[in-house]
Amino acid sequence: MSSSWTFKQNKVFEDALAKYDKDAPDFFQNVAREVGDGKSVEDVKKHLAELVKDVDEIHTNGASSNSNNNTKGVSSRGGSSDGQRPWYLKTQ
């Protein structure tokens, strides 16, 4: 299991999150396969949980008060409203 994620892996991870149906039974397998580099389904699940936690924290505390937050190199593509953001960046 590989716990460190490079910028490139994060980019592939993000693209795969947008590419595959999150409700499909093989969603995590597809994302792990796309990322490659030895990333397992468990790695992908943990990384997604961290991403969602980071995004929720940013939305709760505001980006300026969260300057020490490490978003693991994930970009915030998708526009300014939740309707335009990828599902994993929408607030709960």
From TrEMBL:
Residues 56-92 are annotated as: Disordered. Keywords: Nucleus, Transcription, Transcription regulation. Residues 1-56 form the SANT domain. Residues 71-83 have a biased composition (Polar residues). InterPro entries: Homeodomain-like_sf, RADIALIS-like, SANT_dom. Signal peptide: none annotated. One of its GO terms (molecular function) is DNA-binding transcription factor activity. It comes from the Eukaryota. This is SANT domain-containing protein. It comes from Aegilops tauschii subsp. strangulata.
